[in-house]
Amino acid sequence: IEKEWLSFGHKFSDRCGHIQGDSKEMAPVFTQFLDATWQLTQQLPQHWEFNERYLLAIHDHVHSCQFGTFISNSDKERRDLRVVERTYSLWAYINSHRAEFLNPLYVKENTQDILDVNVSPQTIKFWRGLYNRFEFGVHPRHSLSEVLVAAQNHISSLENHIQYLEDQITRLSSDTSDSQSSCGVSP
């Protein structure tokens, strides 16, 4: 994304409508790229280190302007506006929350140079996690197995996050007790 989209000058501000401008310039090209990436993760889940939440975070923050990563239309504009100095990077945020974005099905040894992808129209799925994520309940067109897989993925993600938080608590508790003992304070 950094190389192919940001450095090569995808016009995020115009395409995403960050500023008032020509409405003819608005286009969901980057959303389509993220959707295509998600389609690949559905066909070959063991080949991707990141999960759906990672793609959703990128999509949301492209439009939120909370981070400076996707602000402006080109690398030159970002340099001129000193975006790096004046804003936070989405990549730093993602790196600091890395455990939330890891795919539990990823197997590094399975990675290959050429992916065997089925491009027939029948393999394209509707990305409910992006387009209908705020709709609750089971849609009549979803099979029970799809609902169960989605529920299992959500449970797994929550369990991973719980483990991450427990590790953080343990580490912080250890750091606190270490600093208290080095200061001569009894815990």
Number of strands: 0
Indicate the percent of residues in helices: 40-55%
Distance, first to last CA: 47 Å
How many domains comprise the coordinates?
2
The largest β sheet comes out as: none
Sequence stretches where pLDDT stays below 50 over 5 or more residues: none
Encode the helix/strand succession as letters. Answer: HHHHHHHHH
Q: In DSSP terms, counting alpha (H) and pi (I) runs of 4 or more, how many helices?
A: 9
Mean pLDDT: 87
Kindly name the structural category. mainly alpha
Shape: globular
The proportion of residues in beta strands is: under 5%
Radius of gyration: 21 Å
Summarize the structure.
Residues 1-131 form the Myotubularin phosphatase domain. Pfam families: Myotub-related. The protein is mainly α and 187 residues long.
